[in-house]
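thread from #wetlab-drylab

HS: before we spend reagent money on co-crystallization trials with pyridoxal-5'-phosphate, can we at least see a predicted complex? here's what I'd submit
DV: go for it
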Amino acid sequence: MLRSNTEEDIRIALFSMEIGIDHKMPTYGGGLGILAGDILRSCADMSVPIVAVTLAINKGGLFQRLDDEGNQIELPTDWRIDDFTTLMAPRVSVPIEGREVKIQAWEYIMTGIGGYQVPVYFLDTNLFENSTSDREITYYLYGGDARYRLLQEIVLGIGGVRMLDALGYTNIRKHHLNEGHSALVTLELIKKMKEDNPECKYEQILELVREKCIFTTHTPVQAGHDRFPAQLAKSILRGFGNSEIDGICHGNELNMTLLALDHSKYTNGVAKKHGEISRNMFPGYPIDSITNGVHHVFWTAEPFRKLYDEYIGGWRKDPFDLRYALSIPTEEIISAHAEAKRLLIDFVNAKHNAGMEYDTFTLGFARRVAMYKRADLIFSNPDRLVNITKNTGPIQIILAGKAHPKDTEGKELIKTIFRDMKRLKYDIKIVFIENYDMELAKLIIPGVDVWLNTPKRPFEASGTSGMKACLNGVPSLSILDGWWLEGCIECVTGWAIGSVAEDQSNDSTDAEDLYDKLERVILPMFYGDRDAWAQIMRYTIAFNSSFFNSHRMVQQYLLNAYFA
Ligand SMILES: *Cc1c(COP(=O)(O)O)cnc(C)c1O
């Protein structure tokens, strides 16, 4: 196989519980995994010497069906990892409850724009040598109880370091822990450093480990951080020794975020505001921020790819050039969008009998259905919404999103939305598309006129789907949280809901503000001033896509972390 780099040349290793590579490979759940995929796509394009490690997720993430009431029916996603990857020869093992659990790795090669290849390894315990329950450790994404989760994190962190060694990646300079799930990398590195440097004191060992680790935190709420009882960790990881485990615990707890923070020389949040929140949450730790970005070619729909190819020749290689979208004639932008919109409207009409129209203002909202994202905020005052439609201009709404199987509130929320849809059906066309995944994201996001985001502050660490919208000339209407605090120039790149001054969200004032913006600013412009509308689309591309892309993000990782 042609390889532009050898194992020894690879200097960076990215560890992530999920990686979104291809919609046919259901090894991701949402934003976190897709971000990891975009990081790697950019690294491949820019020839960054990186290797990635994740879990096989043999049974695939959840496939969502919805019945007429909006009940989420959860089906396994049928897939075979060997359709996409190659099995590698080396095997390693990790000590779990006194057993040696064997791990194999599947290799996927991601190829960049210039042919540079980035290897991704999927760790897999589904081996005959393992007991039935150990074979299931890599089956499900975020499934099972605390013990199951810890076993997965042992395979990812400890197994990951061992597998890279076995595969010949002996020159890793930085281990990038994407979220706390992989923090046990540090435990294995401590062990290795001690063996390699028997003369060093523990403090020196820690310093050596810190030199080798980078940590990105993604969660602005305490409850979102993985924590395990120290007792559980000791009993499962007894192969490492009690004092070793005590050394990485805080009190009675193994806290994966603190573990990663303690052992990383560089830590970052995923947007400026999220960095600030993280510093407040973990006082004493120096936490920087690198704002997320999305891969520009991957997330741009065909009509816009053609347009950029024609007007901004170098954009595929260098997305900073998207700044020059300012020179694209607005009629061309309007017609590229019309084409992307037609594809989406045809899809919802054919598949959902939605009866939607090409010329009607279309609002889009799709992401994980988690309570803080408030997918139902737009329906909180149905009478007002209907009034706006009747008096200002028609609206049609396209929604999608899966709830986590264990998130009963999230599942209830989908049912609530279905009830809202039924109540409103004579006045507003609304459709909820099943099984939101990367492929649907590529159809829905470019095809709507405005991308809506209504998270409760301050829970949106960054958010990335609004960045995908920018690449397709779709402005956002969003709560000022996460990336939108940086990306929103009012009435230039989109519109804000609420003001920066408020630190907490209030459902009813947010909803009223959302309706006000639609009624007074957005709909009158959409239906009455096409030139002004086209300008906004163009500014959205020029100002935001030239910055909120993953090439810029990776360059910041290179500058501040990978080769700092
Ligand atoms: C981009 C994306 C997400 C993340 O969207 P956010 O706006 O960050 O919540 C989730 N799921 C899919 C399928 C996506 O493409």
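DV: The domain at 302-547 is CATH 3.40.50.2000 (Rossmann fold).
HS: ok that's useful, forwarding to the group
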